[in-house]
Amino acid sequence: MVSAPSDNSNRAWEPNPHRLAKPRLDPGFGKWLNAGTMDLPDAIARFLSKPGAEETTPFGPEVLVYKVGGKMFALTMPDEFPARINLKCDPDRSVILRDEYDAVTPGYHMNKRHWNTVVLDGSLPAKLVRELIDHSYDLVHASLPKAKRLTGN
Questions:
Q1: What is the DSSP string of the chain?
Q2: What is the reported pTM?
Q3: Can you say how many angstroms the Cα of residue 138 is from the centroid of all Cα atoms in its chain?
Q4: CA-to-CA distance for 94 and 87, rounded, in angstroms?
Q5: d(CA 34, CA 42)
Q6: Is residue 60 a contact partner of residue 110, using CB atoms and an 8 Å limit?
Q7: For 62-118, how does the pLDDT look when each residue is reduced to its tens digit (9 = 90+)?
């Protein structure tokens, strides 16, 4: 709650802008400033927690690519700010997500029908980002030949 100044001056009171501001995400302290969002290290940890997931650098050291069974399900360029991740997505769902969230756009340098770029700027709930990572992994994993699905490699 914002309170008026305690003195009896004639000046109009103004709300504290820091109290009304949207929670912000600081790259080093995101968990403390806005526990409901996901930062890039959290996303990478989620990628690597998937069975059979591996981090590769086929496009050079500036692009991290996450694969399962030799097929890409996520990528990021960790030096970008704000952080961005590309994730595979069902085409119909992609359209809905892009309409609903400014931080979800057609996949940068990807097939825009099947890939989204997700900006980790603090505007998306962590639960949604985790679900989109899981969805991307599941789509790619399900497309693998049965032998690769069983081994995860």
A1: -----SS--SSPP---HHHHSPP---TTTHHHH-TTS--HHHHHHHHHHSTTEEEE-TT-TT-EEEEETTEEEEEE-TT-SSEEEEEE--HHHHHHHHHH-TTEEEPTTS-TTTEEEEEESS-S-HHHHHHHHHHHHHHHHHHS-HHHHHH--
A2: 0.74
A3: 16
A4: 10
A5: 13
A6: no
A7: 999 999 999 999 999 999 999 999 999 999 999 999 999 999 999 888 888 899 999
Q: Please identify which residue in the block is written with the tokens 């500036």.
A: 62
Which residue's structure tokens are 């899981």?
A: 134
What distance in Å separates the CA atoms of residue 37 and residue 118, rounded to the nearest whole number? 13
Sheet holding 53-56, edge to edge: 53-56, 64-68, 71-76, 83-88, 115-120, 104-106
* Distance in angstroms (rounded) separating the CA atoms of residues 3 and 150: 61
Query: How much is the pLDDT for 152?
Result: 52
- How many residues in the chain? 153
Mean pLDDT of 39-60: 96
pLDDT tens for residues 23-46? 344 444 444 444 588 999 999 999
- Using a 10 angstrom Cβ sphere, with 0-12 exposed, 13-18 middle and 19 or more buried, the burial of residue 65 is middle
